[in-house]
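User: Can you help me understand a structure? I only have the sequence.
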Amino acid sequence: MLRALWTSASGMIAQQTNLDVTTNNLANVNTSGFKKKRADFADLLYQINREPGAPVEPASMVPTGVQVGLGVRVVGTPRIMTQGNLQVTDRPLDITIEGDGFFQVLQPNGEVAYTRAGSWNLDGEGQVVNTDGLLIEPAILIPEDATEIMISPEGLVSVKIDGQPDPEEIGQIELARFVNSGGLRAIGKNLFLETAASGAPIVGNPGDEGLGQVHQGILEMSNVQVVDEMVNLIIAQRAYEANSKGVQTADELLRIANGLKR
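Assistant: Let's start by predicting it. Here is the structure, written out as tokens:
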């Protein structure tokens, strides 16, 4: 009886985590470059009261045995790195990655972080920075007298300057990809850090070494599908309710057992 209580409780705890993951997806439905996550589950240990295949007679054996499970737990929350919806903005420093890869930004501690969010801006010195003021890596400086910024699909940055007939090349956008991008560690602010699970970054120009191309004037939005997440919410709610019924039923059986002597 007590085993049923703890088994049902483990199911409720797992569904609570599932709900947390789903609601975080919904909260970031309009976050540029956000990649949704899902909760993966695995059953816990089994109490084996009778081994499958245990001999009964010299010529026969137990076909299935007696194995009672002890519940469930969350074993992972993998990030789904599919392409998000694209929004045309016609803003020259809105850049999207079509395909695999991450932009690189330099943190104040000198460590490189990675992001899919392509909303870039200029600081007071003309440097290209993200919305939190972190410099794109490698750094790109836009001249003060530039009248137009042009970015090729291969990441070459050029500007038009008054008095010059031809565009001037001023920098190159580089992307990084990982063998296991799902192993990156999210630190918030649309940033990820390299881990042992992700592997070392493979850095190159857009379009090279399996990297995607970049497109100017387009912003990649979240890959969260609201309808899918609403369905997940309903499934998590019903599963939570079902497990709570297991707790109530086990409690009722215990009440009956305790009242046998009356």
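Now, to help you interpret it: The chain has a mean pLDDT of 93. Helices lie at 2-27, 226-258. Let me know which part you'd like to focus on.
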